[in-house]
Fold:
Amino acid sequence: STWGYPYFFLMANASAKKRLQENTKQIALLQKVIAGLLSVFFLFRYIWPRLDVFWYHWIGLVVVIACNGAPYLMLVAAAKPTKSDDGELIDGGNDLSQGLCEYCWDVLYVTWAMMLLALFTEWGWALLLVIPGFALWQLWFKLVKPWIFEEGQFAKPKDAPNAKGGKEKVKYRTVRR
Structure:
């Protein structure tokens, strides 16, 4: 039959191959961009400095490498394909534009902007504070605040009785088409 197992498997395999090709292209481009930006940053900031280089700049370089390396490794792990025992492609890897991968791209973009700004001014380093600031913002509004104020001890009861002492009934309305 047309919709049987073999047809479905061929379509899924084509999709997996397409995803694998897209992920391979994205990771290759990402490698080139990171290598190029780190090279330019190191060359113009540390080898041929227009600005003074102090010990904390070297610590900053380690932070910049970590801010490029950690998201890169996470994206590579997400893009890793799954293959069967006989080497046949089962899954082409995750979509690198969804889920946690979005945050990895955001960290990379902020780090790249910081690297470019730090070539011209010391204030460029302050842009790195956006990353932990955003992480704390997300932690507060997605985890801590809901836990304390909506589900914790100060939360309002969800099934509170109405003024008459009973629970309110949900009224449904039929819609004619």
User: Anything to note?
Assistant: The two ends are 37 Å apart (CA to CA). The beta strands are 82-83, 89-91.
